[in-house]
Amino acid sequence: MSPTPTSTPCPSGSARPAAVVNEDIRDLWQRSGGCLSPEDEEEYQRLLVEWAAATGPNARSAA
Length: 63
Hints:
By secondary structure, the protein is mainly alpha-helical. Helix content is about 65%, strand content about 0%. The N and C termini lie far apart (about 35 Å).
């Protein structure tokens, strides 16, 4: 499956909001029917890294 336009990184290295990345993650799981292909798994891992960066260290340590 090819990535959706919303999963394309923002130009100039600007980060997307965590909520947008989270929506892409949910979308990926829904599209895959809950079973990720190797390509989907690659995209999922990339999205997780992007989400973690978007939430920042303060959001993760507060939980």
